[in-house]
């Protein structure tokens, strides 16, 4: 992806965050709720112990719901990154692609977890080992843009108890500067 393409993607993500009016403190679930409302498709987060090697997460589109599945056996910060990376695919305009063949995975009833997804599709995604580098790079740019904003916004929103009126005014004005 060219530098111009990266700048355009970052700008698109910043516009989206501005439109969503996501406020600190950053909360992945709130971001997913707001983005799902904007897209007109609920985003359901699914925590699963995903076997490694393999993806740490994936996005699968059901008939009426977008599922973001993420590794349950990692830190909260890593889970947030995985989820925002999958949202990054959506923000970048990608579609979930699952053209990979894989053997059946015993002892897992995917119909219980994803009632409106074909269980064979889920198995293929969990066993994929090939990724489109361009799409992964774009999703990572989008995720980094969101997480950079979250980090800066959370720092700006954290006001010491002894903050003066001037400090509060400066913080109020500064927390929006990144979205202009």
Short description:
The protein is mainly alpha-helical and 180 residues long. It has 7 helices and 3 strands, in the order H-H-E-E-E-H-H-H-H-H.
Protein architecture, described:
The chain is mainly alpha-helical and 180 residues long. The chain has a single domain, classed as Arc Repressor Mutant, subunit A, CATH 1.10.10.2910. It is built from seven helices and three strands, in the order ααβββααααα. The chain has a three-stranded mixed sheet with strand order 1-3-2, sandwiched between helices. Strand 2 and strand 3 (65-71) form a beta hairpin. Helix 1 crosses helix 6 and helix 3 (76-91) packs across helix 6 (133-157). The model is unreliable at 98-108 and 175-180 (pLDDT under 50).
List the helices and strands and how they pair.
Elements lengths: L2 H18 L7 H12 L2 E7 L8 E5 L3 E7 L4 H16 L18 H4 L5 H9 L5 H25 L7 H10 L6
Parallel strand pairs: 1-3
Antiparallel strand pairs: 2-3
Helix pairs in contact: 1-6, 3-6
Placed side by side, the strands forming the largest sheet appear as 1-3-2
DSSP strand tally? 3
Quickly name the level 1 CATH class. Answer: Mainly Alpha
Mean pLDDT: 76
Uncertain segments: 98-108, 175-180
Separate helix tally:
7
Q: What name is given to the CATH topology?
A: Arc Repressor Mutant, subunit A
In sequence order, what are the helices and strands, one letter per element?
Answer: HHEEEHHHHH
The CATH architecture assignment turns out to be: Orthogonal Bundle
CA-based shape: globular
Key descriptive features of the protein:
180 residues; 3 strands; mainly alpha; Arc Repressor Mutant, subunit A; 7 helices
């Amino acid at each position: 992806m060219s530098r111009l393409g990266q700048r355009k993607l970052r700008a698109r993500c910043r516009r989206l965050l501005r439109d969503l009016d996501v406020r600190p403190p950053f909360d992945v679930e709130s971001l997913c709720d707001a983005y799902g409302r904007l897209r007109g498709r609920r985003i359901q987060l699914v925590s699963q112990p995903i076997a490694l090697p393999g993806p740490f997460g994936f996005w699968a589109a059901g008939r009426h719901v977008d599922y973001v599945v993420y590794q349950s056996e990692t830190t909260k910060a890593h889970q947030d990154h995985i989820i925002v990376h999958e949202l990054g695919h959506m923000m970048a305009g990608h579609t979930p692609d699952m053209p990979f063949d894989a053997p059946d995975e015993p002892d897992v009833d995917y119909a219980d977890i994803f009632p409106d997804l074909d269980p064979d599709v889920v198995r293929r995604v969990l066993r994929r080992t090939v990724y489109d580098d361009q799409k992964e790079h774009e999703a990572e740019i989008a995720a980094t843009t969101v997480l950079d904003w979250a980090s800066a916004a959370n720092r700006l929103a954290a006001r010491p108890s002894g903050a003066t009126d001037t400090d509060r005014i400066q913080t109020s004005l500064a927390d929006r500067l990144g979205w202009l």
